[in-house]
Amino acid sequence: MYDDFKTLYETAMQCKKCRLAEQRKHVVFGEGNLKADIMFIGEGPGAREDELGRPFVGPAGQLLDKMLDEIGLKRADVYIANVVKCRPPNNRDPQPDERAACMDYLRAQVAFIKPKFIVCLGRIAAGVILGRDVKMMKEHGMCTEVKNFTIMPTFHPAAMLHNPDYVEGAKQDFQVLKKRLGELNIAR
Ligand code: URA
User: What gap in Å lies between CA 94 and CA 150, rounded to an integer?
Assistant: First the structure.
């Protein structure tokens, strides 16, 4: 598929496979630790991310940073990416053909990084990664083992900003993550 991560990055940075390329300021490829055990996958860049070319740097990102901090993690410990790498206009949901066009990049990111734990931020990411409709209220914090990965959906930080109940739920989910990470470290 891609010979190395650099080729993947350079290909994605020039991508014009879907209509989202037309209005973007920057491709938001993803960033973080290429040897991370945990990968967070969001939906797609917002306005601030589009400006800066970095994932989760707006208000939702600040909340994500806080939640990471609460379980003793920093951004440098994890890898953060999105289902689509270009901002959907007015932050609308990425459409199925846009998700499909971008899937190759996400799949390759996961294949190179080989995280042990994938946290899906929100319904769209969870649906794409698990390949089915996910009912977040019911399924957040529930871990599914797929091949070598443990996949856990949780609430999207942008949704948490609007609904404090989701913050509580996500905090519980991050505790699940912390416990699993502890177990991973013990197992090494
Ligand atoms: N929301 C997302 O899903 N991803 C980002 O990078 C920022 C906000």
Answer: 24
150 phi and psi angles, rounded to 5 deg:
-105, 130
Ligand 1 proximity of 44 Cβ (cutoff 6 Å):
yes
State the closest ligand 1 atom to the C-alpha of 60, by its place in the atom list counted from 1. 8
Identify the residue whose tokens are 């209005």. 23
DSSP 43: S
This model's pTM is above 0.85: yes
Q: Is the CB of 94 under 6 A from ligand 1?
A: no
Q: How far apart are CA 10 and CA 18, in angstroms?
A: 17
Contact (CB, 8 A) for 2 and 108: yes
Q: Which H or E element spans position 44? A: none
**Ligand 1 pocket check for 45: Cβ under 6 Å:** yes
56 lines ligand 1 (CB under 6 A): yes
Q: Is 98 in the pocket of ligand 1 (CB under 6 A)?
A: no
Per-residue pLDDT tens digits of the chain, which is 188 residues long = 899 999 999 999 999 999 999 999 999 999 999 999 999 999 999 999 999 999 999 999 999 999 999 999 999 999 999 999 999 999 999 999 999 999 999 999 999 999 999 999 999 999 999 999 999 999 999 999 998 899 999 999 999 999 999 999 999 999 999 999 888 776 65
